[in-house]
């Protein structure tokens, strides 16, 4: 029989970990050489990385920056392997701005600088909240700067929202909540469809404040991708939230409409929707209406993104425990309050990785517009390669375009990780 | 089904049952699909009453108190809370919910908000109380449940017992006239059960109208003025605690008591 009696007479003090498991050496041992197999894999993959870099670097570091054509590149390289960067030097402005008039480039640049100013307070809550006022103005400023025309049109469009708000505010006490909501929807729509145009036209003839107009067919390059991408991303999130809620609604008609929309859009390739935008839509429009092609494409891409967004958000909603809804109900919060204060903040937080994946997907999908003839970077690359000076150039162009896309998509991905860390509250 | 002894004597000076009716339930029935979960429930609760509802699992006791603030819908009969009839009228539901506090088995705190924000959210948005005032009230109740120092932490950083006390404080911040407890200690470790029960007793001592679904028979004996025993969706027996525990009448009650107190 062993003696099972034990009483500790002194508690053990906390001690430093052994040196081999801490610090730099510990990290190397733990992460790279923790076992024989791991050590072999580390050496093999290290060798592979070195091999790829040693093959790529000489190609990238190539003294062809000033070459004016592919032939000149070959002369400079004299038989050696190397990239022909002259095409980027000569065409980079075109890849960024398309055929936008070069004396008006400042408008595009200003537009994207302002975009950063408008988006910053939305992304980083540490910034002063008053900046959000500019974020609210920006959606009306952006198209005016890009397309130009009279300043009264964006103001008239913005006024529609004011009308909607006023209709809601003053009609609600008189005809009730539902009537107020319907009026808040109908009044601005009537204004936009029938009155905004003539009114802004009238004001423009009285006080002509206008920027030089730029036609949509001159839009191109990255500016086009970013315009389509940013608008689609910004609008698809709220529409996605509404669709996700609609899909969970108890009201049969709302639910069926949401499910129908989501399933239809997801069941159709984006390229089909873009063809509808570029050709079919004109058939349904009253003859003579000229509905801007970029606008049509933006609407299609937005609808497409919204359907995906709705499903991503529905996943977040489904992950929330039922107790959260019950606690919100039990405290007397009504449906909209509990959605806004309790449910959505948590559901959106859970769905951040999915939402950002969808954003990145939408941004990259904007390259599909090259198929319907818009000159996004991919469309332009075809044009550039048709130039006999650059006929036969491939890697340099696509590498440059890929790099720019990578910078945008990688920033979005890093931002999403930052956001996830920031919203981490120690639970789930 | 533990019987945790409380160290102190319960102060009964403010525990007065008035003759004003707080909740009136008559001939209430509820079905889940075709399953008849609540059958002909008749219950009248006066202001200041402390009622413990006991019974085996699946007997409908949680469903009963969840019907009182419309987390579950009843299909027949009437429920009148504080003079307001519970029907599908949303206005009535919101009114009743803001006057009836509820504490859940799994706390259901909002994990994305701090303790203080959990407590001020409903007063600010439902009662439209200014933020500063709501925060003062919240701190007052957090002090009462003895965790004011945790006010700026998130629920995930607190122990189960602390979270449940926050949940109680959160309900109290709405100044409810009635409190419902749905197995508030069932998800807690024994050490934490005591701190939550202590908070509930304190509440009872101040004269709050309480309906508690619980297995804490010690709490029932010391605090309740009435114990209701349910089985198969109906009220089988109700009595004042002494009589209920020492002299149960119905066979089912005797069996239940012998099983939870017998060993």
UniProtKB/TrEMBL annotation, chain A:
Tagged with keyword Membrane: yes
Superkingdom: Bacteria
Database matches in Gene3D superfamilies: MetI-like
Domain ABC transmembrane type-1: 222-416
Xref: InterPro entries: AA_ABC_transptr_permease_3TM, ArtM/GltK/GlnP/TcyL/YhdX-like, MetI-like, MetI-like_sf
Membrane topology: Multi-pass membrane protein
Compartment(s) where it occurs, according to its Swiss-Prot or TrEMBL record: Cell inner membrane; Cell membrane
Record field: transmembrane: 39-61, 104-124, 144-167, 174-199, 219-245, 257-281, 293-313, 350-375, 395-413
Gene Ontology molecular function, alphabetical: transmembrane transporter activity
Predominant localisation class: membrane
GO biological process, one term: amino acid transport
Keywords: Cell membrane, Membrane, Transmembrane, Transmembrane helix, Transport
One Gene Ontology term, aspect cellular component: ATP-binding cassette (ABC) transporter complex
Sequence similarity: Belongs to the binding-protein-dependent transport system permease family. HisMQ subfamily.
Entries under NCBIfam families matching the protein: HEQRo_perm_3TM
Protein's UniProt name: L-glutamine ABC transporter membrane protein /L-glutamate ABC transporter membrane protein /L-aspartate ABC transporter membrane protein /L-asparagine ABC transporter membrane protein
Organism in which the protein naturally occurs: Aliiruegeria haliotis
TrEMBL record, chain B:
InterPro entries the record matches: AAA+_ATPase (IPR003593), ABC_ATPase_HisP-typ (IPR030679), ABC_transporter-like_ATP-bd (IPR003439), ABC_transporter-like_CS (IPR017871), MetN_ABC_transporter-like (IPR050086), P-loop_NTPase (IPR027417)
Domain ABC transporter: 23-257
A GO molecular function held by the record: ABC-type amino acid transporter activity
Pfam families xrefs: ABC_tran
PROSITE patterns (alphabetical): ABC_TRANSPORTER_1, ABC_TRANSPORTER_2
Family annotation (SMART domains): AAA
Keywords from the named record: ATP-binding, Nucleotide-binding, Transport
Family membership: Belongs to the ABC transporter superfamily.
Name assigned to this protein: L-glutamine ABC transporter ATP-binding protein /L-glutamate ABC transporter ATP-binding protein /L-aspartate ABC transporter ATP-binding protein /L-asparagine ABC transporter ATP-binding protein
